[in-house]
Amino acid sequence: MKEDLRSGSTGLREATRAWVTQCALSRICGVCEGGLGRPIAFVGSLAERDRNQFHQPPMHLACAEGVRVDGQVIVATAGFDFIRPDREDADQSPRFEPNSPL
Q1: What sign has the CA pseudo-torsion 38, 94, 26, 6?
Q2: DSSP tag of 50
Q3: pTM to 2 decimal places
Q4: Which residues, other chains included, contact 26 with Cβ-Cβ below 8 Å and sequence gap of 6+?
Q5: What are the pLDDT digits (tens) for 14-51?
Q6: Most buried in the list 26, 64, 97, 98, measured by CB within 10 Å?
């Protein structure tokens, strides 16, 4: 993954545990770092969409459209749950579950 848009890049910042947690708890966009309103967008693979769990942090819809690449989908929602994995969880990455699809 690429650096965030503050450097002029058009890609996603690396989805580290600290970064996605900061985005979730501060309710900021994972691309531009601006405050989130509605709709909230998530970018991910078809598999992430099908299980309704995304690893990239929430974004503004316009930011999501700017960083999405071929093979990725955008899911718009009014809200999300932030999932912090426990020891028994097969997926040890923090993730997001959209809970109010638009």
Answers
A1: negative
A2: H
A3: 0.84
A4: none
A5: 888 899 999 999 999 999 999 999 999 999 999 999 99
A6: 64
